[in-house]
């Protein structure tokens, strides 16, 4: 089982290299082979229920985990995912891990509820957004560049695949709820990203 996971991980990383090569030299459309660690690979529990999103969604909402802290390997990040899911399902009583996707410091994306299911990460906005969490505490420190680039790639792919509106608004969690999330450092950073929207209609 461990060997299988390791092989998949290496394949995923190879895909990133190929993707960069093709993008650089052939200007082809982004492929669908971004490195996503599936729920089976990180050891997810099944959701207790699923509500479908109406696609494409108009918002992308960025979070940090704060806790658990940053992870830098498939094993560490998978463990972080399981602990977040345990907290969300067990303590909070939610149907599943709250986020649609998580991005690890190991250079991989982790599948949460995915592109099609309504998440539980930003009250009032769950049904109109994809929630992406960067694993780690980014109050005073930025995530590694690779982790942020991968987050941007994930958003671009979501747009290409029709899950995220081309005119999407990128916002931080704190813009729709009283919370420090996604941390001061990361929030300042995302204000420079494509389609960041300073003013959000409150719901
Ligand atoms: Zn948040």
TrEMBL record:
It comes from the Eukaryota. The keyword Transit peptide does not apply. Gene3D superfamilies: Peptidoglycan recognition protein-like. One of its GO terms (molecular function) is N-acetylmuramoyl-L-alanine amidase activity. Residues 48-183 form the N-acetylmuramoyl-L-alanine amidase domain. Keywords: Disulfide bond, Immunity, Innate immunity, Signal. InterPro entries: Amidase/PGRP_sf, Amidase_domain, Peptidoglycan_recognition, PGRP, PGRP_domain_met/bac. SMART domains: Ami_2, PGRP. GO terms for biological process: innate immune response; peptidoglycan catabolic process. Pfam families: Amidase_2. Residues 34-177 form the Peptidoglycan recognition protein family domain. Disulfide bonds join 71-77. Monomer. Belongs to the N-acetylmuramoyl-L-alanine amidase 2 family. This is Peptidoglycan-recognition protein.
